[in-house]
Amino acid sequence: MTESVSSTVDNSVPGASAPAPARADRRPQQRGGRGRPAAPAAARPAREVHPVLAQLATLHPTLFGATVLPLKRGIYQDLLALHGEALDKAGLKVALAIHTRSTRYLNAVAAGAPRHDLQGTVVEAMAPGHVFHALVEVFKRKKPRDGEDLQAKLRRRMALAFIDSGLSREAYLESLQVRDADTQALLDAALDEVAEQDAKAEAVHRAYVSSGSGDVHAFAEMYGMNAHTVMRQLHRAGQLQATRTA
């Protein structure tokens, strides 16, 4: 008997490797207690708004709404006089305390925004001391990002707040009454930087007057300086002169 051998026909594509068997996902499934699937993370609950603050946001959205403005002194009495029994007196005191200590309100004060009445009209400039202390408090609440130097940023903001105050160094320090030694040291460093820049500004002003140019751009080009920088320095020199003669 002749043994027949059947030949095997290879129908695969030449050079192609056979598909690898599917691998099961070996990552362990997150499970809760006793083998149950883990529950999804709970969403952070929304911060509860004081009921009187919510009421104020409806009555005066310009002052208490999505954006806030610094309030005039005596706003508590103004609110009671305008709205009477519609506002709970004790609740209003608590609501105003919460509002004026909030970071967004302090940011508005730290930016030097003026005080406003219930109609949103500017009634008073913000006192330099209030601007400064709000600024310090805002930076205390900040959490630094990677590589962020919050102290350097605060020092620059202190310098700008001092310049915007229009006061002399002595008058500015007297208005602040800083009690914290670290804050005082940072403020001194900021004021020293301003003094250095002021000396340069006054030197530029003297040179500008002596040149008799009368044209800032021509003067800046003559000395190889930036015209916008020269204009800022001349403006600052004028501020310093006004402060001394006030």
UniProtKB/TrEMBL annotation:
<dbReference type="GO" id="GO:0033592">
    <property type="term" value="F:RNA strand annealing activity"/>
</dbReference>
<protein>
    <recommendedName>
        <fullName>ProQ/FinO domain-containing protein</fullName>
    </recommendedName>
</protein>
<dbReference type="Pfam" id="PF04352">
    <property type="entry name" value="ProQ"/>
</dbReference>
<dbReference type="InterPro" id="IPR016103">
    <property type="entry name" value="ProQ/FinO"/>
</dbReference>
<keyword id="KW-0694">RNA-binding</keyword>
<feature type="region of interest" description="Disordered">
    <location>
        <begin position="1"/>
        <end position="46"/>
    </location>
</feature>
<feature type="compositionally biased region" description="Polar residues">
    <location>
        <begin position="1"/>
        <end position="11"/>
    </location>
</feature>
<keyword id="KW-0143">Chaperone</keyword>
<keyword id="KW-0963">Cytoplasm</keyword>
<dbReference type="GO" id="GO:0010608">
    <property type="term" value="P:post-transcriptional regulation of gene expression"/>
</dbReference>
<dbReference type="GO" id="GO:0034057">
    <property type="term" value="F:RNA strand-exchange activity"/>
</dbReference>
<feature type="domain" description="ProQ/FinO">
    <location>
        <begin position="44"/>
        <end position="154"/>
    </location>
</feature>
<dbReference type="GO" id="GO:0005829">
    <property type="term" value="C:cytosol"/>
</dbReference>
<dbReference type="InterPro" id="IPR036442">
    <property type="entry name" value="ProQ/FinO_sf"/>
</dbReference>
<dbReference type="InterPro" id="IPR023529">
    <property type="entry name" value="ProQ"/>
</dbReference>
